[in-house]
Every structure is written in structure tokens, then in C-alpha cells.
Amino acid sequence: MSSPEAEGSPLRIGARGLYRGAAFSVVGHARLKTPLGFWHDWLLTFEDGRAGRLGETDGAYAVSFKTTHAAPPRDGLKPLGTVELGGRPYRVLEIRAATTELLGENGSFGLLDYSQEPPAVFLGEYQDFDALAFTGL
Fold first, then answer.
1. How far apart are CA 42 and CA 27, in angstroms?
2. Per-residue pLDDT tens digits for 98-115
3. 88-95 and 51-57 as β-strands: parallel, antiparallel, unpaired?
4. CA–CA separation, 127 and 47 (whole Å)
């Protein structure tokens, strides 16, 4: 696998940042090819013990955390359709082989991961790159 530098991402494993005042480290990376380009999935470990994900595509960044919400049945998802998670509506943006990307109100973000059983639900929000205060790039 090529290095993230060659993939066009400014992020690196070992980088550190802040999300809503909580410090984290970038500890893992996967690059996924989609019909629209590439999606980078960065794994984050927070100093307070939480684990999170940072999705990156085309200069957009979304921080999310695994929740206890049940994922909707995959066969019921339709592009631009709506699903409800935690009492909030999300629009289905992209359905991939193992994951589905969701967009909620006010910059909220969701990811449904059907590669595991039971499927995992990650919810969070889009963030400006500069707001994440990265160091070690």
C-alpha cells in the first residue's frame, strides 16, 4: 500500500489533534476506492480513552464515534433516501460495498458499517481541517 503522502492526504499516522477540546492521536489508516474517488478512514485514539474515526474525502473531514444504535436493514437503503438514528433524520449519500455514508442536519455525519456483525453505526460531525489543530504532519 502506498504511503498517505502519495495518496494526496495531509494526514499521517502519529499525527495529533484536538476535537472539541479533546486530544487525540492518529493510530491507523485505510484507503477505500469509491466510484467518486478515494475515502480515507483514519483511526483515532483519544487521551480520555475513546476511540473514533476521521473520514476524509475531497478535503472534507468528519469525526465520528461508534454508537449503540441499531443499523437499518441494508436492503432498505436507497441513495438520497432517509433513515432515522437516535431520533434524528439522516440522508443516504453513498452506498458502498461495506459501508453507507449519511448526512444529517447542521453538519452531522453518519456511517453504517455492514462489514461486521451486527453492523456498526458511527455518528459525528463534519469539521474544518484547521479546527482539528493537527500537529506532526
1. 7
2. 889 899 999 899 999 999
3. unpaired
4. 19
> How far is Cα 44 from Cα 23, in angstroms, rounded to an integer?
10
Q: Would you state the pLDDT for residue 112?
A: 94
Count of other CB atoms within 10 angstroms of residue 68: 7
pLDDT class of 120 with cuts at 50, 70, 90: very high
Where b means 16+ CB within 10 Å and e means fewer, 121-131 reads bbbbbbbeeee
Q: Residue 21 has which C-alpha cell?
A: 477540546
CB of 15 closer than 8 Å to CB of 23: no
Which residue's C-alpha cell is 495529533? Answer: 16
> Three cell numbers at 134?
493537527
Q: What's the gap between Cα 27 and its chain centre? A: 14
Residues 114 and 74 sit within 8 Å (Cβ to Cβ)? yes
pTM, entire model = 0.81
Cis omega (within 30 of 0) for bond into 119: no
